[in-house]
Design a protein that fits this description.
The chain contains six helices and eight strands; from the N terminus they run ββααααβββββαβα. The chain has a five-stranded mixed beta sheet, covered by helices on one side. Strands 6-7-8 form a three-stranded antiparallel beta sheet. The chain has about 160 residues and is of the alpha+beta class.
Length: about 160
Amino acid sequence: MLIITPGTAEDSLRDSVGQPDELEWRVHPFVENARGSVLLVAIILITLIAVWYWGYPGLVVLGALLLVVAMAPYFFPVRYHMTGRGVEIIFLGVRTFRGWEELRNFYPSDVGVHLSTFKRPNALDSFRGSFIRFAPGNREAVLRFLDAHIERTKPAESKPEE
């Protein structure tokens, strides 16, 4: 079993086709983006102080709880573990596993990649798919790993129906 952590000496260890056997990384945007985190906390505190000032102290607790829950993927770390069987996402102690046979396509962005259960973009992607964030410096390794494990239909391969 080979675990590749970006930027380590193990990066040179690969299987016979040049791909790592496994990829594992941890992402914690709150810690990685200090300036944005300070701004976010300031906005939340100003909002809660304003709610308190306008005479709704009971809503402060509810508002704080809702804001933290809504921003949980930003505030708390997420671990990702990709193997030959699929991808495991561990968030707040909850493990979610998606096998490669479930996934039909993926759509990369600047900060991560959306794994889809549909061959083409679909309105249900946000409900049935999974989003995994890149760690600093591992974008290309993750995309190569996904490309090697997800059989997706590329536009050039599609044939017109007769």
